[in-house]
């Protein structure tokens, strides 16, 4: 196992290479405002982050990653376009897997540039590809934006589409919602009983818990409206399932998804963006014809990405976390920009894992 000084030395070298590429060094504070993280991730973040309390600043969290504080910093007045790099510790609780480190070093590179998003995607990916040259790694790419576009194009209610968008990063819940909205799963007896009533259910009973009577009645009316909505058509369901199953090299994946777009035409603009990205990657020396694409990739661990996503994995060490991950997060800049937004893409790399793999290769 590499020691701390070795990890810090490699982190410094990786960051220096990102500096040469144009990244300005930034160093966000270790303690982050918990409210921002909770607003973004919900209460789920508490299971993954270390939380503390400050009498003056309120609830704080030890930095679980760099992207969020870098976006906050940039949206408060960063130059445009901008490129940043950083190296330092992040902290994540690993109660589900005690063998994984709960404190480790990340090195990253982030691009805020509205000129040519496809080229910015290619720039970031190519830099990480270069940093990891010489290691035997599996490379995965995907595009959350294609799935989002598919959901947006479904012929169903806005309430249903909003629910599906919210759970894109929770595949089991997403699947359960799809089956329910398509009428494939029966309505529970308790919900049938609730929906069979008419008018508000609150008013005579005492209020218990934090929800007010008006909130409960609104929720019930939403459920009634959902029950009255027609199911998602089977041809749309079949097309969406075919889309989620796409796993090919980029050229063949594009061909398959353009066939699927006959039934899901809303994904066509996202496919055009993927094609432009592929051209930009080729221009930067990436062998796109051998680059894997998975339409469902990034749905379990990349919650703020909404477009291009990528990851580098050590297939000989499936027990290791990804060596590097990244992607596009335009929506995050909108959430934190108080009305402003800018296309943004970036990634992070683990120097400790690089050293581990290099050490194993020498033995």
From TrEMBL:
Taxonomic superkingdom: Bacteria
Chain ranges of the Aminoacyl-transfer RNA synthetases class-II family profile domain: 14-351
Keyword Disulfide bond in annotation: no
SUPFAM superfamilies: Class II aaRS and biotin synthetases
Record-linked Pfam families: tRNA-synt_His
InterPro entries hit by this protein: aa-tRNA-synth_II, aa-tRNA-synth_II/BPL/LPL, HisRS-like_core, HisRS/HisZ
Keyword line: Glycosyltransferase, Transferase
Keyword Glycosyltransferase annotated: yes
Gene Ontology molecular function, alphabetical: glycosyltransferase activity
Stored PANTHER family: HISTIDINE--TRNA LIGASE, MITOCHONDRIAL-RELATED, HISTIDYL-TRNA SYNTHETASE
Subunit structure: Homodimer.
Name of protein: Histidine--tRNA ligase
Lineage: Bacteria, Pseudomonadati, Pseudomonadota, Alphaproteobacteria, Rhodobacterales
């Amino acid at each position: 196992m590499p020691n701390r000084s070795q990890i810090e030395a490699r982190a410094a070298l990786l960051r220096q290479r990102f500096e040469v590429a144009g990244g300005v060094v930034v160093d966000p504070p270790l303690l982050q405002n918990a409210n921002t993280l909770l607003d973004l991730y919900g209460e789920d973040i508490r299971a993954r982050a270390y939380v503390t309390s400050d009498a003056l600043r309120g609830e704080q969290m030890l930095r679980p990653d760099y992207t969020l504080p870098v976006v906050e910093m940039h949206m408060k007045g960063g130059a445009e376009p901008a490129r940043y790099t950083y190296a330092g510790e992040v902290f994540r609780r690993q109660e589900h897997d005690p063998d994984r480190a709960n404190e480790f070093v990340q090195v990253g590179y982030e691009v805020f540039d509205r000129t040519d998003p496809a080229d910015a995607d290619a720039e970031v990916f190519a830099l990480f590809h270069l940093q990891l040259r010489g290691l035997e790694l599996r490379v995965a790419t995907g595009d959350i934006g294609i799935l989002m576009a598919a959901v947006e194009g479904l012929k169903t209610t806005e309430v249903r589409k909003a629910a599906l968008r919210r759970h894109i990063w929770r595949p089991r819940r997403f699947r359960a919602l799809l089956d329910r909205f398509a009428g494939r799963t029966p309505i529970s007896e308790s919900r049938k009983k609730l929906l069979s009533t008419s008018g508000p259910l609150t008013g005579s009973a005492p209020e218990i818990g934090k929800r007010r009577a008006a909130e409960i009645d609104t929720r019930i009316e939403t459920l009634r409206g959902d029950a009255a909505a027609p199911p998602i058509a089977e041809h749309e369901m079949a097309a969406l399932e075919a889309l989620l199953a796409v796993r090919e090299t980029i050229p063949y994946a594009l061909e398959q998804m353009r066939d699927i777009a006959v039934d899901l035409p809303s994904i066509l603009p996202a496919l055009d963006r993927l094609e432009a990205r592929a051209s930009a990657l080729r221009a930067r020396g990436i062998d796109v014809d051998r680059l894997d694409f998975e339409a469902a990739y990034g749905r379990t661990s990349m919650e703020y990405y909404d477009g291009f996503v990528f990851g580098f994995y050590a297939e000989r060490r499936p027990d290791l976390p990804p060596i590097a991950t990244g992607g596009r997060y335009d929506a995050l800049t909108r959430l934190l920009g108080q009305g402003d937004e800018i296309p943004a893409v970036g990634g992070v790399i683990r120097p400790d894992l690089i050293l581990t793999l290099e050490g194993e290769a020498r033995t």
